[in-house]
Amino acid sequence: MKGSTKNILLILALIVMLTVPLLILKDAEFGGADGQAEEVITEINPDYEPWFSPLIEPASGEIESLLFSLQAAIGAGVIGYFYGLVKGKRLTNQ
User: pTM higher than 0.70, yes or no?
Assistant: First the structure.
């Protein structure tokens, strides 16, 4: 299998993995650990007030999760790019 065909198949698999859960679980709530932690804190100490509030509040939990995932993907891409750059320089200098 050629490299470009392999990449296309991997991208299609990624798209399927991202969209299938959203289509199957239409009414599901995709919450994170922050929301669960907030619930536990208010159970333990109902008078607790957060130290600060978010600058921008996303419209829903799904959008918040999407933004968090996007941030992680961009970070992984940057790290992978620089790792590949260093590795490529080492290979060309040999």
Answer: no
The residues, any chain, with a CB within 8 Å of residue 61's CB and separated by 6 or more, are 29, 30, 31, 32, 35
Cβ-Cβ contacts under 8 Å for 29 (sequence gap 6 or more) = 61
List, in order, residues 6 or more apart from 64 with CB less than 8 Å away. Answer: 32, 58
Cα separation, 76 vs 74, in Å, equals 5
Examine the pLDDT at 11 and tell me if it is beyond 70.
yes
How far is the CA of 30 from the CAs of 26, 36, 85, in angstroms?
10, 12, 36
Do 64 and 57 form a contact (C-beta atoms < 8 A)? Answer: no
